[in-house]
Amino acid sequence: MPIALQLLWLLILPIPIACVAWTVTHEEVLREPRDYCQQQSKSAKNVSRRKFFYLFTCEYCFSHYVAALFLVITRFQLLYSGWRGYLIALFSLVWIANQYMSIYNRLRLDIKHEQVEIREKEEKEDYVPTRKAA
To answer: CA 34 to CA 37: how far, in whole Å?
Structure first.
């Protein structure tokens, strides 16, 4: 595969990886299983069990497994053919997917901050102090 096409894949493939990793580790639709995983990652008696369940609560950790799954599905290799290409692709995809998730998280925080500011302004404008009779 030509290097230009590999770079295009490297920019596009992390998008669904980030989407899956973010959804599993942050979104409301999977809150109950994630709460269970968080509880297990803190209180399980076995270290390997705690680490296993932690995987589903950390977008960085989980993105490694999602990227590996996507590599199996797409057979994407970067720079080299064979296991070296898969290894480079895995860590490159994880890094870029996490950059995308960081950008998304920052955008969400900015939007939430703007909504809070707007709500505060609206509340100040709606508030009309009443005069006390003398």
So the answer is: 5
Give the number of domains in the chain.
1
3-class secondary-structure state, position 130:
coil
The secondary structure of residue 44, as a DSSP letter, is -
Q: In 3-state terms, what secondary structure has residue 57?
A: coil
**Total-model pTM:** 0.78
The amino acid at 1: M
The DSSP element (H or E) to which 27 belongs, if any, is none
7-54: pLDDT as tens digits: 999 999 999 999 999 999 998 899 999 999 999 999 989 999 999 999
Task: Answer for the pair 92, 78: CB distance below 8 angstroms, yes or no.
Answer: yes
Chain length of the chain: 134
Average pLDDT estimate for 59-88 = 95
**Is the distance from CB of 12 to CB of 76 less than 8 angstroms?**
no
Q: Does any domain span residue 33? A: yes
Residue-number span of the structural domain to which 61 is assigned: 3-126
